[in-house]
Inverse folding.
């Protein structure tokens, strides 16, 4: 849905299941031509590669569990296809490093789906901070809380829960990999700062679970700012609450994904300002990622679509031999993905350590 | 964007401007085949009609100013095409009545784009009331406030302002037709009640403007409930605030379009309940109009898309000779459009009258 | 509690019941000297009058049902005592006019307890409008909704419900007198405008009730602004929601009593501003009515106490023969009370009329 | 103001400054008898002690900087006076332990002013958790953020800033002592759990400051629950945001001091419930700490007054030789104060340590 939203991307082929029959049925749902519905990503890449330019797919979008990111991503890149990939980047750090190398070597375009950075008010927040309106950043609180794994639902047939809590499919981390990395990415994206050191308490609070479902992390950033990051999938009643607060020497700001069209900037000595998607003289970046007039809420799919749209514009420019407007050259990269993987590793390392600080 | 969201509707042709060159350029933006970009709706309907079944368009979507609803709607219906049409239904009451007759005569499917009824929480609100959870309805407050016409911007080149404030293109009403009808439709849709009588104060508060830009209406409903409806386009700082409150003998409810995924039900003798899109055991209607998991905000385009999706399912069922699941047979009809036109007429009549109540 | 809050008013005597025993027991609860607990207001005023200056009470506070405002107010004024009186001013219009005359004749100080104007953010709103920051006012929406009379509780022993719905104790109006006047007073106080004409739909929605419990009123103000006022005591689930929105040619503002420390000013072309009690460079009026630092919520009693405190400062200045700082010479007067009574009469008249507009 | 609110406590004497003249002037402001305005707490306690029973003060309220808690508290207790004391309990741990001993030895009543536990919705939250409605508690997030010390204002004449950032008057901690202990107390009070271990990052982010102004603490509670506590006085634009979230195996809850009359309980599988002060069938504890009807906001002073009122009722019962209703035997004790002092010590110790966890 997100990819289709702007009419810039056409869904032309796919491999939807390792069961060819299931794959075929999914392809029908998407009204794909039956000869372009494949039984495996390998078959897809091999066959599409043989199609004439202009007809064959332009890029691959990987929306599988973590342990099936690396294989298709590698093969796509090696066969000349650009890639959009779900986060976290890969199953383990080696795969992540391999992908970074491969992208650098091939020069192909790679977008990692940290979709939350696609919201217009995230762009506005980043602009405000870049502009110095908050002064020097001193404190960051970023959180991502959910409650959907509060019970041991991986023991039932819940498909999403099953792979996300399975170390063989998800990797070394559960909540910290699934949503903790979104929080890390958002904090670094909005502030432009990098995490230098961390100290984590990583827990599995649901009996029987094999991976972490809750974690709290003290952070120190490269400019000296302090931070807290917490991610939880057992916070009963929380839907999908990704939220960030940034405090500088001049002002503070708050943004949360549950009301994504609102951005609050707070001052110690005057009224708060509430920025709203589409209202007033927002930054060019915020405007470029807004589709409809003020007061018509844009949501998750629109933000997601912004990543796809920007990626598509970059791919199109590459196809056309032109340069993309820099305002659209804005999506998470394979390097962001490797940073995220490293963050996961350091959090898990810290969680097991008696030492307070772990360097990132 | 809304029509494309669910992958059920393909954009195959269009007439985008009375200037053939402009129309062609728009068609290119949409990646349409050039032979299906037309210079006028007449050309489009005539030509498409000659195409073989399965290739020709299945329906027409009319997104023009009010004075250009009737022509294409009539011609589409007369040539066997289903229709989706922007609100209000038409330029005047005669056209509205003609369209009702034509739809009844042809048996074709006609959807009027009161898009706000597409929100999942509007479906939930309707369900709760239908279920009797509010008791007998006694009081309804519905409002639609905007500020974008607070200045005389029709004197500049603002295209939307120009036609919406022009009696030759908009009809007898400004704000009351443009957004007042949305409020009327929402109130009747959610409560299942009908307005019997009204008393309106209709004003033009910006100097030089030719149509109303603010109106307040006292309402009496067919079950004896009292109501207030107000619509304004000069309420400085309001974005697009459509909101409704319904009070019954057992409980009250509140919903507003600016935070569309939240529905509040209030009790006199216990805690309020906050329903959220995707959370918990919502009504089948709410669930059927939700795309993504809880906590991932769905917005205006998704609600809009729900109307298109339901319409598309009805058209598809007609094409397939099957019956559509009644849960999807849910979109505003040509009769709703005629009710809306009548509401506009009665509001304007009341605004000019010294008598207190006008029967609807 | 409100009178005591600032330590400027000492509770020295009272008449708490027509039953002398009950009155005595109440007096004990307040730790009053037993010889200053009276069996009737008459006894109280007569006796206190004979006490030496400096010992006798300085003013009378009348907190009885509407039909027992006039008697004690008149007698207090005639005997040289200043008066604080609950709203509405009196049982009927004649009493109201009498009291206006009496206050003018005696020159005594009279405060009417429209307590909601005591909030700091109401002062700030008034200041902002006075300052022209909203431009010319065009539209006012003021509402006061409650749900506590949604059932026929006057048939039980609910004391407050019993007298407030009883025409013999409350007067000609129920909800419109009890809370509608608060809304009217707030709108005129904040904007400085006066209501010129109105058109009301006044209803009794609970079977068996003798007075109105719901009303909606279209308003026209003396500067041409349009308005809506609605008051309801049958809005299920509403606690005590007095709220106002004012829209001018430059900006709009919103304030509501349920979150009284927040004032929102909205602009069409830039971020909203959120003023908060105690934060930043507020108007002198807002600051003078704030007791504690920012972020420590002040509520109903504090606002109520502001009226008492201002009244007390005026009485003290009178006693001292000095002039009070004009910032404290700010509380509703007997004239405001008479305006309120007239508003009630005109609303009830309009409610029964077939004519649209009634002059105020 | 808080002590006076309920009419249960009369202000009879005081020592307001070490400068006798200043003390006298303050006494006049409070309308105290001049012979009971003292030049020092020593003079006050010595003199009051000699007054006849019923006339002399019943208790002492200590509202001085931290380094002047111990002296007057000790002397008051040793001379038979009950004590209300500001938090944190004392300047250092030794003083705290001494006071605990002294209260136990004398049997006198001692209330520590953790005023935020006085809010009705805090009582309701505690009731809900005690009742098991949240299930077993797994995760607690408690925060107390302010921005008022974001600049080096202790270098100006700001009196509050001067002593609170001065190790000679405040003790070993700044923000963590001043507000961190409120957060700790609130978390333990609401949940009934105790902190077992902690890991803190304690920072001074404003140049030149002598004590911490920001701290983040990972917590482990005695039932295995994880927690985060953060307190900051440099969070630009934050007023006084004490807030807590508690997640259990059944549900979660959220309360914040900025909107103290609202308590949110969240469920994974149904609508959220919003409890409001005064609405519906609240717990007896919540009701006993509410003064006015629903929808009339109660704030900081009312919560503060609840601590005083409960303390006063206990003192009164002691004077009367009766037993107080257990619902009122509810205020922070000297032992809570000692726990708070220990918390401060452990946080500061952890802040300086390379070891991850410090036992509490």
């Amino acid at each position: 849905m997100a990819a289709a939203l702007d009419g810039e991307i056409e869904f032309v082929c796919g491999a939807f299941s390792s069961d060819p029959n299931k794959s075929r049925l999914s392809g029908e749902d998407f009204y794909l031509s039956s000869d372009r519905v494949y039984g495996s990503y390998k078959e897809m890449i091999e066959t599409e590669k043989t199609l004439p330019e202009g007809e064959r797919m332009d890029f691959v979008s990987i929306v599988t569990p973590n342990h099936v990111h690396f294989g298709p991503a590698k093969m796509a890149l090696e066969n000349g296809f650009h890639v959009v990939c779900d986060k976290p980047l890969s199953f383990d750090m080696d795969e992540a490093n391999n992908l970074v190398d491969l992208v650098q070597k091939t020069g192909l375009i790679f977008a990692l789906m940290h979709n939350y950075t696609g919201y217009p008010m995230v762009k506005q927040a980043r602009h405000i901070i870049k502009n110095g309106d908050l002064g020097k950043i001193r404190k960051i609180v970023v959180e991502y809380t959910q409650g959907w794994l509060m019970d041991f639902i991986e023991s039932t047939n819940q498909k999403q829960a099953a792979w996300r809590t399975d170390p063989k499919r998800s990797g070394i981390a559960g909540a910290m990999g699934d949503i903790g990395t979104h929080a890390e990415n958002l904090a670094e994206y909005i502030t432009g700062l990098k995490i230098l050191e961390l100290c984590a308490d990583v827990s599995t609070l649901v009996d029987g679970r094999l991976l972490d479902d809750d974690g709290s992390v003290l952070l120190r950033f490269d400019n000296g700012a302090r931070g807290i990051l917490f991610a939880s999938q057992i916070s009963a009643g929380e839907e999908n609450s990704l939220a960030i607060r940034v405090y500088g020497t001049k002002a503070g700001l708050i943004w949360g994904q549950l009301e994504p069209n609102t951005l609050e900037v707070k001052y110690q000595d005057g009224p708060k300002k509430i920025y709203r998607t589409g209202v007033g003289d927002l930054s060019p970046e915020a405007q470029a990622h807004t589709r409809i007039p003020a007061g018509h809420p844009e949501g998750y799919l629109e933000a997601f679509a912004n990543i796809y749209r920007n990626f598509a514009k970059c791919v199109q420019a590459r196809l056309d031999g032109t340069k993309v407007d820099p305002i659209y050259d804005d999506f998470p990269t394979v390097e962001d993905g490797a940073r995220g993987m490293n963050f996961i590793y350091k959090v898990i390392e810290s969680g097991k350590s008696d030492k307070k600080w772990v360097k990132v």
The CA atoms of residues 66 and 227 of chain C lie 28 Å apart. Chain C touches chain B at residues 134-135, 138-139, 141, 143, 147-148, 150, 199, 201, 203, 205, 214, 216, 218, 220, 226, 228, 230, 232, 234-238, 245, 247-252, 265-268, 272, 353-357 (CB under 8 Å). The mean pLDDT of chain C is 97.
